[in-house]
Write a structure and sequence with these properties.
6-stranded mixed sheet, alpha/beta, single chain, 21% helix, 263 residues, 29% strand, 5 helices
Length: 263
């Protein structure tokens, strides 16, 4: 199940401050990755929502995934959300109730309740489909008057799954997107924002793992495809922008393209 409550910090009406934590994920080192995230949070206080990359606590583990599964990343996210009175989003390798691993994205609220989304499009090219069970449920998290569609990395390539059915205002893509395909990352983030008339939050990692390198490129895009904030280079850093629901409402009313979408 996933849970939702209305208890959160006093947000500015229609305005939500989002901070992406673009971290250099250390391979299978949960403690070091938590310290890195805490450092970025400490340097960028006051966000309503902090967003971490895909598998931010371990790296993109495909071999022996059960060994990477842990409940500790979720517990740390709960602690951060409670301590900062904010929401926290990011994915981790977890063991499902059936004893099989999932690449699970959490959206944690300040009171410790949370939504979760299991990645639907497993990255077969990298062997993810061999170790993990794919999800089959679309999840929209609600917080601060904003509806957030939860998506993970490879999902970015599949617009049908991400189609806006008037059920969300912003899409969050947490990722381990490699340097070799960073041009595709930037194009698809903008495409998803424009075609769905929504904000897009793309949280990518930086650094390297045993398979490849990552150049970051984390960004927040508005419904017109304009970049509101983007990482400067591939170093670990915080990227902050505001989601303005009133501006989004006005744009959707003035140019209502979603009314003409294919069903």
């Amino acid at each position: 199940m996933y849970y939702f409550c209305n208890t959160h910090r006093n947000l500015t009406p229609q305005l939500v401050k989002v901070t992406i934590l673009q971290t250099d994920v250390r391979w299978r080192d949960i403690g070091a990755n938590i310290l890195a995230a805490e450092k970025l949070v400490g340097g960028s206080p006051g966000a309503d929502l902090y967003v971490l990359p895909e598998m931010w606590a371990t790296g993109f583990v495909t071999e022996s995934p059960s060994e990477a599964c842990s409940g500790f990343p979720l517990e740390w996210m709960k602690g951060l959300a409670a301590g900062r009175r904010c929401a926290v989003c990011g994915s981790a390798a977890v063991m499902g109730a059936d004893g099989k691993p999932r690449n699970r994205q959490y959206f944690v609220l300040p009171d410790g309740s949370y939504y979760y989304y299991d990645k639907r499009h497993l990255f077969a090219y990298g062997g993810e489909d061999k170790g993990y069970v794919r999800g089959n449920r679309r999840v929209v998290a609600e917080y601060g008057g904003v509806r957030f569609l939860l998506q993970t990395c490879y999902d970015l390539r599949f617009p049908v799954w991400a189609r806006n059915h008037d059920d969300y205002d912003a899409a969050i893509f947490v990722a381990n997107w490699p340097t070799s395909r960073r041009g595709v990352w930037h194009v698809l983030l903008r495409a998803r924002a424009i075609e769905n008339q929504c904000y897009v939050i793309g949280a990518n990692r930086t650094g390297a793992d045993p398979s490849c390198g990552y150049a970051g490129g984390s960004a927040v895009i508005d419904a017109r495809g304009r970049t509101l904030a983007q990482a400067k280079g591939g170093a670990p850093q915080a990227v902050t922008a505001e989601i303005d629901m009133e501006a989004l409402r006005r744009f959707r009313e003035k140019f209502p393209v979603l009314r003409d979408r294919d069903v």
